[in-house]
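Repro:
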Amino acid sequence: MTDENGVLIRLAGCFSVERNGVPYPRGAVGGKARRLLKLLAAERNGTLAADRVAEELWPGGGPKRPVQNVATLVSRLRGALGSGIVTGGRTGYRLGRPPGVRVDLDLAAGLLGEAEGCLAAGEPVLAGSAAGRALELLHDGVVLACEPDARWVAAVREEAAGLVRRARHAAAGAGLHGAGLHGAGPHGAGPHGAGVNGAMFEKARRVAEAAVRADPFDEVAYRLLMRAHVAAGEPAKALLAYERLRHRLAAELGTDPAAETRAVHVAILREEPPAGAAPSLAPVTGAAALRRQSAPGATALRRRPATGAVPRQEPAAGAVSRQGMAAGAVPRQETAGPVPRTEATAAIIPHPEAARGRAGPWEAPLRVAGPGAVLAGRDEELARISGAWSRAVSGCTGLLLIAGEAGVGKSRLAVEAERMAGAAGGIVLRARCHEIERALFLQPVVDALRPRIVHLAGNVLKDLVGGWATALESLVRGRALERRYAYEAVSAFLRALAAREPVLLVLEDLHAAGSATVELVHYLARRLSGVRLLVVATALTGEDGAVDALAGVAEVVRPGPLPLAAVRELAGDARLAEEVFRRTRGEPQLVTALLDGPPPGEEVPLAVRAIVLGRLRGLREPVRRVLRAASVLGGAFDPVLLGELLGLPPHEVAGHCERALGRGLLVVRGSAYEFANALIREALYATTPAPTRLAYQHPAPRPLSPPQPPPDVPARRTAG
């Protein structure tokens, strides 16, 4: 879950420092330098003055030159762990920031934000995965066990205890809601208490009991425990739990249980479903997407105005442009950090309950603070990606193929899949396929696996995959390997990773990969079952190979152009949106290029020209010449007439047009072709040299041969 070149500091459990899952030897950082690292990690949200650091490191009186000694310790840390481990100078120091340096408590907080958001959005399987991973990271809140009770140690322990409390609430809620997905009745009696549901109810009960033991006044945990007892068909135990809580509150605090707790108690007495026990599991649409967008690594949210239009605004510092919201690239992150609390996320991911008895996010209906922008026009695609990942987390191996024309937003959806998986505690492996590397055996897969394999010692890799370790090492080093043997080795490695955490393998531009890579993807989809693995691949339609080869084993998602409503959402101005939509016909990449550039006018922005010219690079020169000539003609064009203009046979021009059609540059209109949108034609026209345009506008006259009669049919004589 760390960045490929990042450091993870574990405060929970046994303090350790690791890179890419491999711990540094204890001797790498020892003594006062080790305690300094603990202090900086605990106080990671601020800068510590050198004097304050010295006081904490030498509470009974330090050396004669404490500031210089602190600087020496910092230098020692940088030498052992990298220059980015500590920032600042003698006036003040702080821990390096993500993704270079991460702390386990921050990872757990990000996972909990995701878990709570998933519960609110009706995704209990993903919520359970994220909450379970957070609990693993937190080690029941045991933090810096060997450190004395200094103020900074007590503060970080309190922080960890709060995270554990939230994690147990989320895990128990996910267990109850997840069993509801499998058809459990309100009381879970009879067959509903067995099999999958019985196991999920029992897990929810164990987690809720642990929360109650840790905090006997935790009413949210008591309500979850009561619901778990009822769902398992044991309402008497639920009533006993309520009585224990009531007596404890009366004896020690002189108060009664909260109204929400009393409501659950009354429902049990009446043999009714306890309040909040039957959540609404609606499809993942705008609200769930908004929850996802609020996490780090997602795109900046653009708020929709309640009424009227708002002027376009530049993204905030550190935010990603609107291009990321529609189709463009965004910075990739392996995992999400703590979820920022904003107006958009306040109602979805609340703070831990400050007052006793406050309802948790899984107990109340989802409330969004106001209208919000999401990944515009992609609710259905996000729902399918979320569903595929949810099934993978449950142990159902899947293959999701995102297929479409250039610029339609395939890569942006793949980035969203990575964010979902990373935020839920999964392992993300990624690579891009390049046409020039087609001859290299399984090169994209090697690129995806190499960062995980090269950092593993030989004995560790052998423990993971057994006899396939040698084959994997040969594969990543480019040695010759029999194809079936390589497929089995890759399968063994993915199976071993998925046994620890769910795995997402992303392969972009699969249409550019060699046949061996496409065959391996097909092999994984067919041969791996019961493995927590999801393969997400993007591919161009109209290209031979990948899409057709995987059609029988892949779930295919085909994103289309953005509707006018989505363009309005991105633009924030109705008139601007209509103009952009007219010129782009909703193609996401061009929409965002226009919106992120100067106000749309007659001039074609440089970003748009670069996009269109980039799509021409894979086409042969005759195809490009036909397209430039067509841009000069304007409007719909007939290949026959265009061939006469260029002096080319009609069938040859038609073949060039079909190639451009497959790339999404042209569309068919009746018996003619026209450009897929006005902006493509404008960009081609603007980048065609003026003399060439004149040549296409005023072709040299040439004699046309009279039509020849078919064989054996005498030519008619003309009159006069």
